[in-house]
Design a protein that fits this description.
By secondary structure, the protein is mainly alpha-helical. Helix content is about 80%, strand content about 0%. It contains 3 helices and no strands. α1 packs antiparallel against α2, α1 packs parallel to α3 and α2 runs antiparallel to α3. The N and C termini lie far apart (about 40 Å).
């Protein structure tokens, strides 16, 4: 079971914050780019977290990526299919 601590929260915040920052700074249709950036950044953060024996941060990063993916579904659809 995962406990929600500062490591988990710091890992979790990366994805949604990156996606929402792109959405606010550029446009809503470009918000999917934040999710792609989070995928790359999150991969390396997971490796670093596991290297420093911080599994909660790695789990939080994965959860944050899935939240960023949920946020990015509508912008992806608008950009490529609408």
């Amino acid at each position: 079971m995962t406990t929600v601590d500062s490591d988990w929260i710091s890992g979790f915040m990366i994805g949604p914050v990156a996606t929402l920052t792109v959405a606010i700074s550029l446009s809503w249709k470009a918000a999917w780019i934040g999710m792609v950036c989070d995928l790359i950044i999150g991969f390396f953060l997971i490796l670093i977290a596991l290297g420093y024996d911080r599994p909660n941060m790695a789990k939080g990063t994965l959860a944050g990526f899935f939240v960023a993916l949920l946020i990015s579904i509508h912008p992806l659809w608008l950009t490529f299919f609408a």
